[in-house]
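Q: I'm building a small set of examples for a reading group on sequence design. Run inverse folding on the following structure and report the sequence directly after it, with nothing in between.
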């Protein structure tokens, strides 16, 4: 007889269901409060019970459908050399035309002062030092021109290659001679962009324009071109300066080649919790330049045997400084299919939406620092015996009497990246503040929507040799109280501590450290492919707050090795085997639980 037919009242139904969970986990009253134990608890780990009538369950099923703000820092790409300046901007310096000075047939003069006019970037004292060698001694016409040339060279040496100085017509007589040297500071007359197809030329010219204000500086122009070369919308860029129609002005001809903007990656892996099926299938539609403004559209569909999820996001730049607005939305529907809990017909429906503003404060070819603000709203509803006459609210951690959890939060984040030809360092810090708005879940005791948490993530990718990489990453979360399942720190699985099932630990606070080396064992130049051997070690530690007992074990350590195949940008395949060094009891029915992980990403448009 099915369990739901045994339950003749809501009280009896809930009592039997709760007893069912306990019996299959072989749990004591103390273990009920643990977040990790036997296999049953790894699927439905039970948390602190706020009252005798409302036991609450903390389950990975409640974490399905993660918004961008909750996802881990993506793996940084291997270090790439920045194109040398001569490839981006091969140009000869240009200077204004020279007007012949009138010296009234004087063969030599003694100049008491040089008056340099027209300069906006250098002080009088700086320019006086340049002309000082030509003062208070007899100088010839040629030496007078050398003073003018010295001022021009002073500009050129500091990158102002289209600026120059000349001596305007003037009369030099008497004993107190002052010579005027006039500076014409160079500027761009126009920026002409060719080679674009879908991308608006203004996208490129506006970003170059930020770095080419008068007076034009070659170093600033090169920086703008290097930043555009790093832009994923462009495959290549080069520029050439030529003389303009007026003295001191130049034309900038920019030639670009757009990168492929449309991708349709197919992703297969075993990175989901066994409670909803580990084998995950994903299809994504990505367009990085949908309307020609550098705006990005993302559509994703994710499926396992027990879950379906859809994700949407749209990002548009709103300034040449790469300030962006992003709207994200997602829906998911999950069912517990893992035995013996599949008979409970546990179903969770969740959704999220986020609105993000991100602004780069510092943007250089070698480094970037950005700040941003995200507003998040999440909703989850879970039920037992779903779709039957005996349907009951699922007693999720922090949920209300109807099994519903609502969260509203504002997040302030900071991103930093340092790049060089042999390493990349990426950091992210995020402060999350839960809010009592939009009917958010508020309880007498934590967890609820009112919380404060900080999450810090770091990555270091170091090039040790040709195709040989060292990858170090860390992740830490610190909260002020117990948090809802949405916000918990997860350890175990393909992206955290390999050797354990997905989300083995779900805790309020936690920390993760991982180290991996990638060593080339086979190169396939004909298909731009490489096979790498990748030994790794992962370690994580989690703990709870607000009186919730800590999990047992709290510490997970896994070591192992994998093979990674990369074929251009078209195929990325990964196979890992992790060995758990911390014993976690329970059956191991899936490849994931036995320490085997696989991932395959195929992009048909990249072949």
């Amino acid at each position: 007889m099915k369990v739901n037919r045994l339950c003749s009242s809501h009280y009896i139904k809930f009592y039997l269901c709760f007893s069912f969970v306990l019996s299959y986990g072989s749990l004591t009253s103390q273990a009920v409060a643990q977040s990790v134990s036997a296999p049953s608890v790894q699927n439905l780990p039970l948390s602190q019970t706020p009252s005798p009538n409302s036991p609450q369950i903390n389950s990975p099923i409640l974490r399905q459908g993660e918004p961008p703000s909750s996802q881990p820092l993506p793996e940084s790409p291997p270090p790439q050399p920045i194109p040398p300046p001569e490839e981006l901007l091969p140009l000869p310096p240009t200077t204004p035309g020279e007007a012949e000075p009138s010296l009234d047939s004087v063969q030599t003069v003694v100049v008491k002062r040089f008056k340099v006019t027209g300069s906006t970037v250098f002080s009088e004292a700086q320019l006086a030092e340049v002309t000082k060698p030509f003062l208070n001694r007899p100088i010839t016409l040629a030496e007078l021109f050398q003073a003018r040339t010295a001022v021009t060279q002073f500009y050129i040496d500091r990158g102002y290659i289209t600026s120059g100085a000349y001596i305007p017509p003037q009369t030099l007589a008497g004993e107190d001679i002052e010579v005027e040297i006039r500076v014409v500071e160079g500027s761009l007359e126009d920026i002409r962009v060719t080679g674009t197809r879908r991308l608006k030329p203004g996208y490129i010219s506006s970003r170059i324009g930020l770095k080419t204000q008068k007076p034009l500086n070659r170093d600033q122009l090169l920086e703008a071109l290097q930043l555009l070369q790093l832009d994923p919308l462009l495959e290549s860029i080069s520029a050439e300066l030529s003389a303009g129609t007026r003295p001191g002005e130049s034309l900038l001809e920019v030639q670009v080649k757009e990168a492929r903007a449309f991708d349709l990656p197919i992703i297969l892996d075993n990175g989901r919790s066994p409670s909803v099926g580990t084998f995950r299938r994903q299809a994504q539609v990505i367009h990085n330049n949908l309307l020609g403004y550098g705006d990005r559209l993302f559509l994703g569909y994710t499926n396992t045997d027990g879950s379906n999820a859809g994700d949407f996001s749209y990002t548009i730049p709103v300034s040449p400084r790469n300030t962006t607005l992003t709207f994200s939305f997602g829906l998911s529907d999950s069912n517990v299919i893992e035995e013996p809990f599949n008979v409970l017909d546990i179903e969770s429906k969740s959704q999220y939406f986020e609105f993000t503003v991100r602004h780069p404060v510092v943007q250089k070819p070698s480094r970037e620092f950005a700040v941003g603000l995200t507003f998040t709203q999440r909703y989850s509803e879970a039920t037992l015996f779903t779709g039957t006459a005996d349907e009951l609210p699922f007693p999720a951690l922090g949920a209300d009497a109807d099994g519903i959890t609502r969260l509203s939060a504002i997040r302030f984040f900071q991103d930093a990246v340092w790049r060089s030809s042999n390493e990349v360092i990426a950091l992210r810090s995020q402060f999350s503040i839960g809010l009592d708005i939009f009917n958010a879940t508020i309880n007498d005791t934590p967890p609820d929507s009112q919380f404060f948490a900080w999450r810090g993530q770091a990555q270091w990718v170091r090039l040790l040799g040709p195709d040989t990489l060292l990858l170090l990453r860390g992740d830490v979360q610190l909260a002020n109280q117990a948090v809802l399942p949405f916000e918990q720190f997860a350890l175990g699985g393909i992206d955290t501590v390999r050797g354990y099932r997905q989300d083995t630990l779900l805790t309020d606070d936690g920390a993760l450290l991982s180290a991996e080396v990638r060593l080339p064992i086979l190169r396939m130049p004909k298909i731009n492919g490489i096979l790498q051997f990748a030994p790794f070690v992962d370690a994580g530690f989690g703990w709870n707050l607000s009186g919730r007992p800590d999990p047992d074990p709290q510490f997970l350590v896994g070591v192992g090795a994998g093979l990674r195949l990369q074929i251009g940008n078209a195929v990325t395949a990964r196979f890992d085997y992790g060995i758990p060094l911390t014993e976690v009891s329970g059956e191991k029915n899936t490849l994931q639980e036995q320490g085997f992980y696989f991932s395959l990403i195929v992009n048909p448009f990249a072949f």
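Residues 1-16, 18-55, 99-105 have pLDDT under 50 and may be disordered.
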